[in-house]
Amino acid sequence: MTVRPGLFITLEGGEGAGKSTAARNLAALLREDGYEVVLTREPGGTAGAEAIRALLLGGEPLTPEAQTLLHFAARTDHAEALIRPALARGALVICDRFYDSTMAYQHYGQGVPRPYIEALITLLGLTPDLSFLLHVPPATARARVQARNSGSDRYDAMGEAFFARVEAGFADIAAREPARFAHVSSAVSPAEVAAQLRALVHERFGRS
Ligand code: Z5A
Prior knowledge:
Distance between the termini: 4 Å
Radius of gyration: 16 Å
Number of helices: 8
Order of helices and strands: EEHEHHEHHEHHEHE
Structural class: alpha/beta
Helix content: 55-70%
Bound molecules: ligand Z5A
Strand content: 5-15%
Largest sheet: 5 strands, parallel
């Protein structure tokens, strides 16, 4: 079974949904299958974009529009310097969050108008081939994040209502593009999540 070259896979979902863990494990499984896999994340993925990440997650006040533009500045560097070249040589790129997170957090969560973000997506000109939306009960996600206790960022100041809007936003984003999205429960073991993702990659893009 082979996967078509130049496949761009993203993982989306709320904090503590298990995206980073699943992305890492999926990358390992697909490497075992013999593919060149580039594992990356947003905000970040290149030196410049990681520097912008520090601004985005830091505590300095930034308007939602300014945050949106910074996410797309980081994403443009990431896309041009890392993602597009990897896809061009036929690699599988697995990215922990991409522009759907901007729609979920900055539009649904913070009220930036949808056309503002859609215009930036059009300018970027890079759409994932397959996006996984990871689901976990909110109490489980909270427990995972608290157990990890990795310090605070600007999102810790956001209330429950903000995160509820983001969750509903992700569901709406996936419903608008059912052909691109696959829903996956991450309320099972990390190994089971990764096996499900691998099976979905092969189901969508495998050729016997
Ligand atoms: N943001 C934005 O506003 N706009 C944008 O355009 C973009 C992002 C791209 C990035 O923070 C923040 O930026 C994020 C959205 C916003 N803020 N919030 N909220 P980040 O990248 O540092 O954080 P994150 O993306 O939310 O990741 P996270 O908190 O690390 O969550 P995760 O990646 O989904 O979870 P994890 O790290 O894989 O797992 C969390 C813990 O659960 C960890 O201890 C694991 O060992 C455990 N875990 C994971 N999976 C399982 C399973 N299956 N079973 C049991 N335990 C598990």
